């Protein structure tokens, strides 16, 4: 990998060997940190902004940020935060969302009356909850719900969260893998203060960038034409408003390939003719999970 040796502001102090994430210990973001960077100490933060700030202040080396879920879609706020974060995308990872029903020690599945979790996870377990006549209770997040169930110590109250949350909070798993969609996964981006890019010769590279099209007819269509004619595969394109404006739309895109590849370079040159703003957020290796999903789909 090609590494930018630019160091953070020395006044910020030494970079700590930590990886920041949003949520409580046991959250799926915590699980992503532990799987991808077991050598770094996880640093829980209350908000995505705090996780980003921890990296900028050198309190953490990296940040693990969820961007999209295969069932739920994109994670709110993240796409708006990335461009102004001042950080670079240096990698991605995927975590299969295996949801476990957990309760205090001695609890039994047949005695559970309520299950608490984040509203997104509750929506992914509707069939299981209906089958067992368990009432859904909305919690602030998954790991926090597990903690509340532990503190309540009521065998009729359960939580829906990761196995790691059960381990951390001393809860027993009453039913495993209760999610309706068995192919559910969340994609995370790894963010760093240092610009670390994949080598042009790397086998599978993704480039993430943002752009704003000019306010002219068919600008987006023409901007995208260069990727098609040059054989560049665009794997994601999302739009969102900028500063609450209904006329200024910004796009975030993922493409397969390195900016130094001849076809990618030509596509980006054509993009420049029809855009008023462009910025690359990261050039990084594609995670092997992508290949496993393609094989399963074939």
Automatic annotation (TrEMBL):
One GO molecular-function entry:
prephenate dehydratase activity
Q: Known SUPFAM superfamilies for this protein?
A: ACT-like, Periplasmic binding protein-like II
Which organism is this protein's natural source?
Answer: Albimonas pacifica
Q: Which GO terms describe its cellular component?
A: cytoplasm
Q: For site (Essential for prephenate dehydratase activity), what residue positions does UniProt give?
A: 186
**GO annotation, biological process:** L-phenylalanine biosynthetic process
Provide this UniProt record's keywords sorted from A to Z. Answer: Amino-acid biosynthesis, Aromatic amino acid biosynthesis, Lyase, Phenylalanine biosynthesis
The answer to keyword Repeat applying to this record is no
Query: Can you name this protein?
Result: prephenate dehydratase
This enzyme's EC code(s): 4.2.1.51
Which Pfam family, just one, is annotated for this protein?
PDT
Query: What does the record give as its pathway?
Result: Amino-acid biosynthesis; L-phenylalanine biosynthesis; phenylpyruvate from prephenate: step 1/1
Taxonomic lineage: Bacteria, Pseudomonadati, Pseudomonadota, Alphaproteobacteria, Rhodobacterales
């Amino acid at each position: 990998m090609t590494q930018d040796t630019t160091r953070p502001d020395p006044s910020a102090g030494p970079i700590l060997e930590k990886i920041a994430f949003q949520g409580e210990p046991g959250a799926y973001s915590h699980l992503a940190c532990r799987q991808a960077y077991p050598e770094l100490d996880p640093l829980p933060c209350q908000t995505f902004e705090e996780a980003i700030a921890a990296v900028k202040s050198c309190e953490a080396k990296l940040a693990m940020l969820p961007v999209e879920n295969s069932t739920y879609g994109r994670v709110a706020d993240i796409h708006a935060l990335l461009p102004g974060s001042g950080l670079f995308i240096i990698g991605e990872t995927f975590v299969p969302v295996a949801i476990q029903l957990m309760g205090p020690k001695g609890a039994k599945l047949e005695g559970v009356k309520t299950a608490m979790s984040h509203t997104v996870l509750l929506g992914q377990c509707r069939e299981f909850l209906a089958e067992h006549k368990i009432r859904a209770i909305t919690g602030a997040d998954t790991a926090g719900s597990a903690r509340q169930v532990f503190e309540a110590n009521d065998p009729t109250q359960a939580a829906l969260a990761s196995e790691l949350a059960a381990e951390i909070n001393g809860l027993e798993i009453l039913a495993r893998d209760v999610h309706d969609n068995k192919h559910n996964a969340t994609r995370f981006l790894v963010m760093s203060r240092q610009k670390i890019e994949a080598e042009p010769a790397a086998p599978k590279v993704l480039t993430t960038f943002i752009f704003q099209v000019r306010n002219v007819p068919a600008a987006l269509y023409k901007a995208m034409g260069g990727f098609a004619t040059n054989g560049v595969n665009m794997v994601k394109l999302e739009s969102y408003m900028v500063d609450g404006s209904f006329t200024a739309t910004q796009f975030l895109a993922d493409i397969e390939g390195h900016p130094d590849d001849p076809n990618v370079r030509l596509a980006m040159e054509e993009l420049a003719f029809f855009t008023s703003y462009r910025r690359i957020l990261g050039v990084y290796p594609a995670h092997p999970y992508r290949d496993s999903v393609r094989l399963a789909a074939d």
